[in-house]
Amino acid sequence: MKRFLILNFVIFAIAAMPVVAGDTTSYGDGVTLAEAVAIDTLIANPDDYIGRTVRVDGVITDHPALARQVIKDRAELSSAERLMLTAAFWMGLEPKEPPPEVDAG
Fold it and tell me: Of the residues 5, 44, 68, 97, which has the maximum number of CB atoms within 10 A of its CB?
């Protein structure tokens, strides 16, 4: 089941890239800071950054729990499994619904 979720997330993210890449609208002057501050460092020590300009890198999502689970699940995949997911995406393969889980008891 977790591989199905990961594959769906990867396919959705990559499928959305052409839509995002086609938009050439620019907001602001762009990022000029070379070094990013980890968000957990910023949250742990907010007073250290008062009056400073900082760059924070990360993913913005409406579903942080799902994003954390996908990252965790992906980290548990072997190199071969990650390679298969990538290859499946580039070949345009769509994930199938997983079979229903059957209680073996």
Answer: 5
